[in-house]
Design brief:
Blueprint (H helix, E strand, L loop, with lengths): L3 H11 L6 H13 L3 E2 H7 L5 H13 L3 E5 L5 E5 L14 E5 L5 E4 L20 E4 L2 H5 L1
Parallel strand pairs: 4-6
Antiparallel strand pairs: 1-3, 2-3, 4-5
């Protein structure tokens, strides 16, 4: 089985990016979190990074379709790994962002049916859907 570091190196190379320790560190933190990770947690995990380096590294990963950004209402920004369909031109996500009001986690969740949004006269390039409620883990408690 492929090690996470090797997987992340391949991910960077597949997007034609140089593999650097900073990029690997940021991706490793996002990958290992298990759900979308708040920016404050990324900062906490990478306290050796200065603000500018962290910001620029995240921006490169966003711009190259490796991670995506989730803005939760009145809260901080979260980051998650993208699927295989994102690139430098566009993020192609067919999932919902579920925000648990109990534990505050944000998860990327595939809907049972494909979402289609059509607005007459508009050309849509991206749709972001956030769903709020109680996650499965919190319901089990």
């Amino acid at each position: 089985m492929e090690e996470p570091k090797e997987k992340l190196e391949k991910l960077l190379k597949s997007h034609e990016l140089r593999v650097t320790s900073k990029r690997l560190d940021v991706l490793s933190v996002i990958h290992s979190y298990g759900s979308a990770i708040p920016y404050s947690k990324v900062q906490e995990e990478l306290k050796d990074f200065d603000r500018v380096t962290l910001y620029r590294t995240i921006l490169v990963l966003l711009d190259n379709g490796i991670i995506h950004k989730i803005q939760v209402e009145d809260q901080e920004v979260y980051y998650a790994l993208c699927g295989h369909t994102c690139d430098t031109e566009e993020h192609h996500h067919e999932h919902l962002h579920f925000h648990c009001s109990e534990c505050e986690t944000v998860s990327c969740v595939e809907p049972d049916k494909q979402l289609k949004v059509l607005l007459k006269g508009y050309q849509i390039s991206q749709v972001n859907v956030q769903v709020n409620g109680v996650c499965l883990e919190c319901q089990a408690v």
